Amino acid sequence: MGASQSTESNLAASIQRHLSKIVVAPSFAASLFFVYGFILWTGYMAFSKSRMLPVWDWAGLRQYERLWQMERWHVAIENLFIFGGLFIVTCLFIGCLLAVLLDQRIRAEGALRTIFLYPMALSFIVTGTVWKWLLNPGLGLESMMHNLGWESFKFDWLVNSDMAIYTVVIAAVWQASGFVMAMFLAALRGVDQDIIRAAYMDGASLPRIYFGIIIPSIRPVFLSAIVVLAHLAVKSFDLVIALTGGGPGYSSDLPATFMYTMAFQRNQLGIGAASAMMMLATVMAIIVPYLYSELRGGKKNG
Predict the structure, then answer these.
(1) How far apart are CA 17 and CA 70, in angstroms?
(2) Tens digit of pLDDT for each residue in 141-173?
(3) Cα→Cα distances 292→214, 218, 296, Å
(4) Half-sphere exposure of residue 189: CA atoms within 13 angstroms, side-chain side
(5) Residue 246: left (phi > 0), alpha (psi -120 to 50), or beta?
(6) For burial by CB atoms within 10 Å, which of 105, 221, 246, 296 has the most?
(7) Element (H, E) at 78
(8) What is the pLDDT of residue 7?
(9) SS3 of 58, please?
């Protein structure tokens, strides 16, 4: 009887010790299958002869060769460089500027911070839809200016194949700048105030303090912001779909919209899988060095 009670007690103690792992295990297994399992499946499809339906016949690099021979893919890559470059640089500039202004302890700081952060709470679909209304020549800004009497005003970027990608930049910057501002503001508030006071006592001006002391001390935040924004740029899909639909034609296509079109609309599953793997490689090229530098920095501090 004593041995039975001891066994039950040990079992209960063992379950109690591993309860958190038991609770998390189903979610972990599901994530392992539905995320990494499908990444492996997509990777194999990129080397197969798949078109409308998955085919397991090996085709080597044929899908990648076809991918890089397509003009539409080159347009998507060019748009990614334009969109990503302008999106990252503009968000960093506006976010840093807003953070510096709010760091002056101005009135209504809490309300302004909420207003600037609010766009990030919206989905990209909502953002794209709203900006589509605003930039529509027949409904938005151009129509409003005409109604106000400025008949010569023209802003047709949304329907201009050469300028459509820049409307995506405008909408994305509007949504993400507040998030970058929050990152910089948190970093600014964490700077040692004794150093700033000492610089004031030495007669340094406010711009010199920011450019010579404060901003250089928050360089890791710049790196983190760049990684986050680059990741958002590479995987941008819903904003483009809601705002331009990849058009006019495919002039505002990005790799994510290209992949969707090939895989689910053009019955080119193999090419869609190949483009998805190229996107994965791009994201890994951004994130892996960042994680390596963070881990390396953590070991040095440890």
Answers:
(1) 56
(2) 888 888 888 888 888 889 899 999 999 999 999
(3) 25, 19, 6
(4) 11
(5) left
(6) 246
(7) helix 71-102
(8) 65
(9) strand
201-214 per-position pLDDT tens digit:
777 777 787 777 78
Q: Could you tell me if 242 and 125 are in contact, meaning their C-beta atoms sit under 8 angstroms apart?
A: yes
| 48: phi then psi, degrees, rounded to nearest 5 | -105, 180
The span from the CA of 302 to the CA of 298, in Å, is 6
Taken in order 28, 224, 122, 190, the sign of the CA dihedral is positive
Cβ atoms < 10 Å from Cβ of 248: 14
pLDDT at 297: 62
DSSP H or E segment with residue 168: helix 164-189
Lowest mean pLDDT among 103-107, 273-277, 282-286: 103-107
Cα 266 from Cα 59, distance rounded (Å): 19
Q: What are phi and psi of 246, to 5 degrees?
A: 85, -5
Closest CA to 185 of 263, 269, 106: 106
> Which single residue is written with the structure tokens 């009887």?
1
- pLDDT averaged over every residue in the chain: 85
Whether 176 shows a pLDDT value over 80: the answer reads yes
| Structural domains of the chain in order of their starting residue, each with its CATH number | 69-301 (1.10.3720.10)
Q: Treating both helix axes as pointing N-terminal to C-terminal, what angle do 255-264 and 71-102 enclose, rounded to 10 degrees? A: 140
Q: Is 171 helix (H, G, I), strand (E, B) or coil?
A: helix
